[in-house]
């Protein structure tokens, strides 16, 4: 047999070099990857250990709304005005010591009482009203004055007084005549009035309603006064005042 020819040397050498170079490349790459992994591990540990603690954030400053400031200033001014006027009113009250005008009946006359029927009567009654301003530093003006005459709780006549002014510590006398003509009275009140006339003791009630205006420099104030008087008269035709009791209040 003929011997086989030997393989070409160049090809074999080329394949070996290719394999060797490929193996060297693979071997050389593996330690590089391991070194990179090993080098990263300690770096991760050190960064976690030296991480700084979280810092606290301060709240941001917020500006107050101008409308809120404006409302607060208005409330402050209003409160100061209330305090000022309260103190001024107290000083004026203590310095002036205002008093209410008074209404009194110093004299009265019962001229006639007679009945046309059991439930209708006629009467003639006159009284002298004394209206006084007791204040020492205040002038007053009576803008409305109405005086009513009652028997029991039944009105039997009314009169009005013209408005007038009063200076301090001044009194005014007004004569008022009450004429009752065919005034209806319930039967029980008519019987009671007849008994009082026969017993020479007739009781009337007088009610006054007044609107008073007070002037204090540039300040004006108006209010209502109510007067209540109980009077006792002798029988007509010469009935005179025997007793009286008057109270005036707001």
TrEMBL record:
Keywords for the protein's UniProt record, in alphabetical order: Membrane, Transmembrane, Transmembrane helix
One Pfam family here: LEA_2
Stored InterPro entries: LEA_2, NDR1-like
Membrane topology: Single-pass membrane protein
Domain of life from the UniProt record: Eukaryota
Biological process according to GO: defense response to other organism
Start and end residues of each stretch annotated as Disordered: 31-57
Biased composition (Polar residues): 31-49
Late embryogenesis abundant protein LEA-2 subgroup domain: residues covered: 130-229
Single GO cellular component term: plasma membrane
TM stretches of this protein: 67-96
Protein name in the entry: Uncharacterized protein At1g08160
């Amino acid at each position: 047999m003929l011997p086989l020819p030997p393989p070409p040397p160049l090809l074999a050498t080329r394949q070996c070099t290719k394999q060797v170079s490929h193996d060297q490349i693979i071997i050389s790459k593996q330690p590089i990857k391991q070194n990179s992994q090993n080098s990263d591990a300690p770096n991760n540990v050190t960064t976690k250990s030296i991480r700084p603690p979280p810092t606290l954030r301060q709240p941001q400053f917020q500006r107050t709304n101008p409308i809120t400031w404006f409302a607060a200033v208005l409330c402050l001014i209003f409160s100061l005005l209330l305090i000022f006027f309260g103190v001024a009113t107290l000083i004026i009250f203590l310095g002036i010591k205002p008093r209410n005008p008074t209404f009194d009946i110093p004299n009265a006359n019962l001229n006639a009482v007679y009945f046309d029927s059991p439930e209708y009567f006629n009467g003639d009654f006159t009284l002298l009203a004394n209206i006084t301003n007791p204040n020492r530093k205040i002038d007053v003006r009576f803008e409305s004055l109405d005086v009513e005459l009652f028997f029991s709780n039944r009105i039997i006549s009314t009169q009005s007084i013209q408005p007038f002014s009063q200076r301090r510590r001044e009194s005014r006398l007004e004569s008022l005549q009450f004429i009752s003509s065919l005034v209806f009275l319930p039967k029980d009140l008519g019987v009671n009035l007849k008994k009082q006339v026969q017993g020479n003791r007739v009781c009337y009630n007088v009610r006054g309603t007044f609107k008073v205006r007070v002037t204090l420099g540039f300040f004006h104030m108006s209010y209502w006064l109510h007067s209540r008087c109980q009077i006792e008269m002798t029988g007509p035709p010469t009935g005179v005042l025997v007793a009286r009791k008057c109270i005036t209040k707001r």
